[in-house]
Amino acid sequence: MYRVDSPGRVNLIGEHTDYTLGYVMPMAIDLYTVLHAQMDDKVRVYSRVFRDVREFGLDSIERVNDWSDYVRAIFWVLREEGHRIGGMKGILGGDLPIGSGLSSSASLELAVLAFLNEAYGLKLLPIEMALLAQKAENEFVGVPCGILDQFTVVHGRKDHVIFLDTDTLRHEYIEFPRNVQVLVFYTGVKRELSSSAYAERKRVAEETLRLLGKRTSKDADERELRNLPSLYRRFFGYIVRENRRVLEARDALKSGDVNTLGELMTDSHWDLARNYDVSSEELDFFVRKAVEFGAYGAKLTGAGFGGSAIALVDSDRALDVAMRVTEEYIKHFNWEPDYHLVSPSDGVTVRRV
């Protein structure tokens, strides 16, 4: 029997840049998908969250449009790539919220893949695991995500943030301040990553690169966008500015300048809200209140359209800020949100139990 702990992630800055091969600055977090599993001749998985069992054979793996598609996707991609594997019998649990913008899908994919890698001796490198999981989500599940989520879940490091160039996959670890925590605030608004809104932004970004004759958003300058259609100019202008903010955020974190990092995060949020149209009333409310109550900065995390937001807060004030924002949120929306205080975590781990 094996136990896999697969973290979620937050992205401190660099939203919607990975599918144009730009810069991101995420961290794995200490909320986990936990998988207990053993080898079997077919696949049988019980989810404690959904209180549901799913079972399938390995001869013909097809989508069924439920949570088990992320499990099926990993078996599909391994067989597609020529790896010889058997099945698994497993139980899924953990404390990582599902559907809240913390990469529960990538966390689940990598939990299954890490188990199979260990149990069947596949000898996959971490970067190979990230790329396989991304392919599984793109081609089997049908979500056109970039590499950000899978890379972070695999490569996370305790007490560190990752600065990643999603084009070259070169990355560096930057120490996270020990007296600061990240407040993760789940608005209660569900969002579907594979919705038409996300796909439209990816399509517009790719078309803009084609019109500009550029390979990545890193190569683009805002002055080059002047002759583009207004929607393309507005959307891609955000991406160009966000790449610049990620570089500035990296430098601020390296020098221990938490105030500047926070300001950049907040600037990122309002650019996302006003020019990329991926925020919501609930996310905006959290950002305003978190900053008002003493956070260094705050922003939505992940794709947006609901889900979660984050704030950078002094550790000794974090609980107070969380409770005050929650109280105001309940008054305004008549809904009790969920929140977590998180720190940077190691990436996915596997051990025998």
TrEMBL record:
EC number, UniProt record: 2.7.1.6
Catalytic activity: alpha-D-galactose + ATP = alpha-D-galactose 1-phosphate + ADP + H(+)
Top enzyme category: transferase
Residue span, GHMP kinase N-terminal domain: 70-156
Any GO molecular function: metal ion binding
Source species, domain of life: Archaea
Gene Ontology CC annotation, any one: cytosol
Keyword Lipid biosynthesis attached: no
Segments forming domain Galactokinase N-terminal: 4-36
Keyword terms of this UniProt record: ATP-binding, Carbohydrate metabolism, Cytoplasm, Galactose metabolism, Kinase, Magnesium, Metal-binding, Nucleotide-binding, Transferase
One GO BP: galactose metabolic process
Family annotation (NCBIfam families): gal_kin, PRK03817.1
PANTHER family: GALACTOKINASE-RELATED, MEVALONATE KINASE/GALACTOKINASE
Family, per entry: Belongs to the GHMP kinase family. GalK subfamily.
Protein name: Galactokinase
Organism: Thermococcus siculi
Upper classification of the organism: Archaea, Methanobacteriati, Methanobacteriota, Thermococci, Thermococcales
